[in-house]
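> call design_seq(struct)
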């Protein structure tokens, strides 16, 4: 029993040491999608043949960081899948997934009730999934060159599918 717990701690330590390199990989992959006009636009879309449209929505913008949402919009009903929330640290040249939910099952989560081991392992899983998806997106042909600015945010992107679960009051927001 003790050796099993020790192994988990070693694994978490190893993951914690490797996490910055993974965040650098996320930034490198993301930088192939992020156009220079990201600083001037709140919503961008990339359209390529034989692939769903890829939407990038800037949720917060600060001098050295940008918080964005990257998602495909699928079908007539506008399903957003996966729905990646990403914090980009421009000065450190790193980016991390704060949420990534291919089935809308992974929620943004951090706080005192979650052991640090759980936070590290969760961050590792989210960011590995994001790197794999970004590689797939880039392989489809999405790039800086295919991203174009939208004048306004489409209504189907106005609210994240995760918003209601993060903030229960959002479910009752009618305005």
């Amino acid at each position: 029993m003790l050796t099993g717990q020790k192994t988990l701690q070693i694994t978490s330590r190893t993951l914690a040491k490797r996490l910055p390199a993974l965040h650098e990989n996320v930034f490198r992959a993301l930088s192939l999608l992020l156009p220079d006009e990201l600083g001037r636009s709140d919503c961008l879309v990339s359209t390529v043949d034989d692939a769903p449209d890829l939407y990038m929505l800037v949720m917060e913008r600060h001098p050295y960081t940008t918080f964005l949402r990257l998602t495909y919009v699928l079908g007539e009903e506008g399903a957003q899948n996966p729905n990646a929330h990403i914090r980009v640290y421009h000065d450190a040249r790193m980016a991390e997934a704060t949420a990534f939910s291919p089935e809308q099952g992974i929620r943004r989560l951090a706080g005192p009730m979650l052991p640090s081991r759980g936070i590290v392992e969760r961050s590792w899983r989210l960011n590995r999934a994001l790197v794999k998806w970004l590689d797939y997106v880039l392989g489809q042909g999405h790039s800086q060159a295919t991203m174009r600015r939208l004048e306004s945010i489409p209504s189907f992107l106005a609210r994240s599918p995760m918003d209601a679960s993060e903030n229960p009051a959002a479910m009752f927001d009618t305005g």
